[in-house]
Amino acid sequence: MKQKEIIYRELAEHILRKEKNILTQLMLSKKLQISLNTVNGAIFPLRRIGAVQVRQRSLAVIDEKKLILYFASVRNLQKDICWQTRAEMPPSRIEKNMPANAIFTAYSAYKFLFDDVPADYSEIYVYADEKGLAEIQRRFPKKEGPANLFVLKADENMLQTAKKGIASLPQIYVDLWNLPQWYAKEFTDAFEKRFGW
What we know:
Blueprint: H1 3-16, H2 25-32, H3 36-48, E1 52-54, E2 59-61, H4 64-74, E3 81-85, H5 91-96, E4 103-105, H6 106-114, E5 124-128, H7 130-139, E6 149-153, H8 156-161, H9 169-177, H10 184-195
Helix pairs in contact: 1-3, 1-4, 2-3, 4-9, 6-9
């Protein structure tokens, strides 16, 4: 993920965690280990569209939906795919065969979080570090045909914030928003209803 995408995810997670502490650009810079200049550059378009308000000593997200949609619009999911293959088995079996350190996103993550699916799906998307990627490649070797298993490169902050092998809510939504399958819209619409967007 690009650094600005990591910043947007952190801002969205902060809001969804309903944390009361005040955010500053310096705090984001230190927590994410990203230069203050990069943080300021990432905040500028959010300020311009009215998603955040920069005060003298703090930063406030004032429009959660605008923040999430802007994050979704700049996200380049395809660029983060580091492995894809065809697994000749149903999605539920692919999910069961994933190593413990894989982080589910998109359709599978929605299913695991809400115990529901608004539409049937056939693709599995997971994040993994290098060790997890090697294990996934061992379990699901390269096969010809349309890919239905996609592994995305996990960043260090994602590895720390994922819970029970599931990506954060903002990351799941943004990833779904960026998928090409027609049923991705069914999932994003259901997501928006759950969160009142």
